[in-house]
């Protein structure tokens, strides 16, 4: 195993960014105006006190994830349903309370580093096995001998009011051309139209059910739409779409869960198996997943996990990540979804520190693939 860094100058795809910026700003300004002009005392009084930590998933109680998927329990009338998660009613008012509350991590925010990302792609191109390159946020490039799989590509900022702490210091078109693009769900920090617009229009996209309008706008019609436990095969490799305890939304007017969400099991042509969890709160299905697949590397999204009363139903914290890793019985653990955008209360550089503490408690620190943005893990 190993990792390398080097890079080149920045590129531009400003036209698509401007269009996406206008659309995102339109949707976000509604909530921002309410936060700006509403009286905080009235909002806090109306919202009341939050309960203590409670169970933030729906226990399987002996049911299997496969049976849930086969029974289409996640298919609603006009939207998808999370059968392993709790109701999201009242979340908007919880969001308001969170934004009006004091951030206990505020003293540490000044220490957040900004690290431009540069990558030397030659060792990756020359490697004839399986490698995983951590680009930024939740974006990874997986090489499987002669194929490249790009997961949740995000090459730039997503909102004007959210700082990018890991800007790319090279033109994203220098990234090896992906054979497949995998999208886990539709939130803007995972399904980014300006980033996708830098790719060839005939690039093959593997995505959850839904998102048709997004890809039609992009002219990317070479798509494979997967439901939970559907499989896409490419020669000796396969991609299986798995459930997760999450949700998705792109347009608050249309509402949430108009498209599906989840993670991917990638069974490579070399025999190695990689699990990309996607965004997910903890749930009690990881033992089943680990029993179905012999996982060499589990890539967890770890970030935006504080405060727990608000984030637990959507994102695992370090303790839960280690618990899920143990239940998967995977050989190695890698974390992404940190260091780029501060989407929760914790500083962007805390997740690697926190996961090491939790792994050390369990005597599992040697199982961590400890790489940073722009670095590559070469799977032996």
Polypeptide structure, described:
The longest helix is centred in the first third of the chain and has 24 residues, at about 15-35. The chain has one domain: 4-Layer Sandwich (Metallo-beta-lactamase, Chain A). The model is unreliable at about 1-10 and about 25-55 (pLDDT under 50). Helices cover about 25% and strands about 15% of the residues. Helix 8 packs parallel to helix 10 (about 320-330) and helix 10 crosses helix 11 (about 350-360). The N and C termini lie close together (about 5 Å). A hairpin with a 2-residue loop joins strand 7 and strand 8 (about 235-240). The protein has a seven-stranded mixed β-sheet, with no helix packed on it. By secondary structure, the chain is of the alpha/beta class. The chain has eleven helices and 13 strands.
Give average pLDDT, whole number.
Answer: 88
Q: Can you list the strand order of the major beta sheet?
A: 6-5-4-3-2-1-13
CATH superfamily: Ribonuclease Z/Hydroxyacylglutathione hydrolase-like
Distance between the termini: 6 Å
Number of strands: 13
Uncertain spans, ≥5 residues at pLDDT below 50? 1-12, 26-53
As for the CATH topology, it is Metallo-beta-lactamase, Chain A
Number of helices: 11
- List SSEs in N-to-C order: HHHHHEEEEHEHEEEEEHEHHEHE
Radius of gyration: 20 Å
Overall shape: it is globular
Find the structural class using helix and strand composition: alpha/beta
**What fraction strand?**
15-25%
Q: CATH class, anyone?
A: Alpha Beta
Q: Tell me the number of structural domains.
A: 1
| Largest sheet report | 7 strands, mixed
Shape-level CATH architecture: 4-Layer Sandwich
Helix content: 25-40%
């Amino acid at each position: 195993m190993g990792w390398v860094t080097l890079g080149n100058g920045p590129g531009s795809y400003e036209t698509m960014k401007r269009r996406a910026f206008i659309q995102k700003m339109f949707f976000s300004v509604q909530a921002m105006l309410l936060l700006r002009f509403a009286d905080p005392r009235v909002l806090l009084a109306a919202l009341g006190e939050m309960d203590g930590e409670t169970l933030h998933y729906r226990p399987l109680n002996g049911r299997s994830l496969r049976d849930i998927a086969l029974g289409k329990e996640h298919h609603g009338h006009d939207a998808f349903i999370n059968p392993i998660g709790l109701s999201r009613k009242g979340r908007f008012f919880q969001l308001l309370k969170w934004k009006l509350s004091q951030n206990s991590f505020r003293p540490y925010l000044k220490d957040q580093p900004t690290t431009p990302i540069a990558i030397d792609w030659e060792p990756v191109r020359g490697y004839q096995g399986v490698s995983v390159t951590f680009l930024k946020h939740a974006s990874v490039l997986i090489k499987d001998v002669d194929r490249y799989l790009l997961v949740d590509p995000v090459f730039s900022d997503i909102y004007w009011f959210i700082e990018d702490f890991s800007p790319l210091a090279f033109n994203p078109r220098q990234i090896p051309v992906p054979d497949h693009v995998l999208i886990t769900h539709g939130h803007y920090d995972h399904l980014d139209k300006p980033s996708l617009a830098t790719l060839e229009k005939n690039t093959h996209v593997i995505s959850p059910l839904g998102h048709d309008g997004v890809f039609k706008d992009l002219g990317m019609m070479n798509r494979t739409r997967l439901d939970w436990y559907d499989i896409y095969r490419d020669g000796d490799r396969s991609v299986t779409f798995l459930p997760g305890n999450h949700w998705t939304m792109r347009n608050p007017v249309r509402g949430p869960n108009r498209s599906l969400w989840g993670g991917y099991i990638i069974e490579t042509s070399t025999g190695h198996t990689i699990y990309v969890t996607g965004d997910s709160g903890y749930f009690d299905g990881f033992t089943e997943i680990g029993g179905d697949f012999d996982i060499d590397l589990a890539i967890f999204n770890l970030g935006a996990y504080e405060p727990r009363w608000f984030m637990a139903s959507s994102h695992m914290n370090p303790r839960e990540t280690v618990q899920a890793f143990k239940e998967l019985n995977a050989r190695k653990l890698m974390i992404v979804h940190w260091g780029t955008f501060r989407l929760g209360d914790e500083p962007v550089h805390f997740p690697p520190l926190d996961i090491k503490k939790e792994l050390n408690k369990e005597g599992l620190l040697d199982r961590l693939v400890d790489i940073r943005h722009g670095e590559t893990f070469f799977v032996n």
